[in-house]
Amino acid sequence: MKIFLKDPDATADFGIEISKLISKSKIMLLKFIYWKTWGW
Predict the structure, then answer these.
(1) Beta strands in 1-40 (DSSP E)
(2) Pseudo-torsion of CA 12, 13, 14, 20, nearest 10°?
(3) Contact residues for 11 (Cβ-Cβ < 8 A; gap 6+)
(4) Structural domain includes residue 20
(5) What's the confidence (pLDDT) of residue 1?
(6) What is the pLDDT of residue 30?
(7) Residue 5: which residues within 8 A CB-CB, separation 6 or more?
(8) In this structure, is residue 18 part of a structural domain?
(9) Is the residue at 40 inside a domain?
């Protein structure tokens, strides 16, 4: 984590990657819920 804190650009990139990961997780979760609800 210290590397990210020292380098603002690296911190920003790291934050973007985390955001992308969270977005993907949300989409997967929504798809799963949709499939569970209407997929049968």
Answers:
(1) none
(2) 110
(3) 4, 5
(4) yes
(5) 46
(6) 93
(7) 11
(8) yes
(9) no
Range of the domain at 31: 2-35
Q: d(Cα 1, Cα 37) in Å, to the nearest integer? A: 40
* Percent of residues in the chain assigned helix, strand, coil, to nearest 5: 90, 0, 10
Number of domains in the chain: 1
Whether residue 21 lies inside any domain: the answer is: yes
Per-residue pLDDT tens over the stretch 1-31: 454 456 667 677 888 888 999 999 999 999 9
Query: Which residues have CB under 8 Å from 13's CB, separation 6+?
Result: none
Q: Residue 15: what pLDDT? A: 81
Output the pLDDT for position 2. 53
